[in-house]
Amino acid sequence: HLSIRRQRQMCIRDRSKRIKLLYGFGFSAQGIKDGLFQIFLFFYFSQVLGLGAGLTGLATIIALFFDAISDPLVGVLSDRWKSKKWGRRHGFMLISAIPLGAFIYLLFLPPSDLDQTGLFLWLTIFTILVRVSLTLFQVPGMSLGAELSVDYNERTSITSYRVMFVALMSTLIIIIGFVVFFVPSEKYARGLMNPETYPKFAMFCGFLIILSIIVSALGTRKVIPLLPKAAENQVKFNLKTFFKEVAMMFRMKSYSTIILYTMVLYIGIGVGTVFTTYFMEYYFQFTETQMALLPIASGIGGILALFLASILGEKFDKKRAVLYSTIAFSILFSLPYNLRLLGIFPENGEASLILIYFVCILFAYMFLWIVLSIVGSMMADVVDEFELKTNNRNEGLFFSSMSFAYKCTVGLGYFIAGVLLEIIAFPKQVGVEDVPIKAIEGLGFIGGPVLMSTYLIAIIFLIAYPINKKRYNEIRVALENKK
Question: What is the pTM of this model?
Answer without folding.
Answer: 0.85
